[in-house]
Specification:
The protein is an alpha/beta fold. Helices cover about 30% and strands about 25% of the residues. The chain contains eight helices and 13 strands. Its EC number is 1.14.-.-.
Length: about 250
């Protein structure tokens, strides 16, 4: 059986996020979905898997159903597939942040970097004067990244603030293009840099996953595979699953 996998997020004001937890968990359980969903005052973030019909029903409810009342009308949503169920159970958790940075000034609902579509990404990162920045953790970068990207060498996203303070300079780094797995970390990172006075900050809309989905391999500047936080381990161009034999050999 082939399962449909949905990775999604949106920064949106959800002051009632605590009250949303149980209705959302019940709805997902009723569709036999598995995976992880994070709810916070600042929005929603998660990856879940199930049958194609169940995932479609879930996406419809988030964007257009009564549960969120139209507050998730700009949901960043990406689909892929898995030959096996990539999650062991369903988790719906409450968090202080849907992606932890620890900077109150980094508010993507107030200011965020300039989105760049996957089809326009190659031209941006090839332009002279562009600093290409990978905002992911060091073990993710080791599995794959874009040609010429700077690895911040962080073990958790919360360390990005220290990297930016020590290594990035608004006067020197006039144009920054950043990327992450699905786009959510870049929303926070770009908001953080803008709050620190960086003038020109771009980020890959939909993240690496959208790039691998839309850009043909022959035109790609991505090298390696993209780590994902489920049992598939990593995805390649066309969002193909990592070869299981290869995963066992490493």
């Amino acid at each position: 059986m082939t399962y449909k996998v949905a990775a999604f997020y949106q920064f949106a004001a959800l002051p009632d996020y605590r009250e949303l937890r149980e209705p959302l968990r019940t709805f997902c359980a009723g569709l036999s979905l598995k995976g992880s969903v994070l709810l916070a005052r600042e929005g929603i973030n998660g990856t879940i898997a199930g049958t194609s019909d169940a995932i479609d029903a879930f996406a419809q409810e988030l964007a257009h159903g009564d549960m969120f009342g139209g507050r998730l009308d700009n949901l960043e949503l990406k689909f892929s597939t898995s030959e096996e169920m990539p999650f062991g159970r369903l988790k719906v958790r409450l968090k202080k942040e849907i992606v932890t940075l620890g900077d109150a000034a980094a508010d993507p609902t107030r200011q965020v970097g300039i989105y760049v579509d996957a089809t326009e990404w190659n031209a941006l990162i090839a332009a002279p004067g562009t600093l290409l920045l990978d905002t992911r953790n060091v073990f993710e970068v080791a599995m794959g990244t874009f040609e010429g990207a700077v690895d911040p060498g962080i073990k958790s996203f919360g360390q990005f603030k220290e990297f930016a303070a020590e290594q990035l300079d608004p006067a020197k780094h006039r144009r920054i293009a950043m990327f992450c797995t699905g786009g959510i970390r870049c929303e926070k990172a770009s908001a953080h840099l803008l709050a620190r006075g960086f003038a020109e900050v771009y980020h890959l809309k939909g993240g690496i996953l959208k790039y691998l989905e839309e850009v043909p391999e022959a035109q790609s500047r991505w090298r390696g595979e993209c780590f994902v936080f489920d049992e598939r381990v990593a995805l390649g161009h066309g969002l193909r699953e990592r070869d299981k034999g290869q995963a066992r050999d490493e």
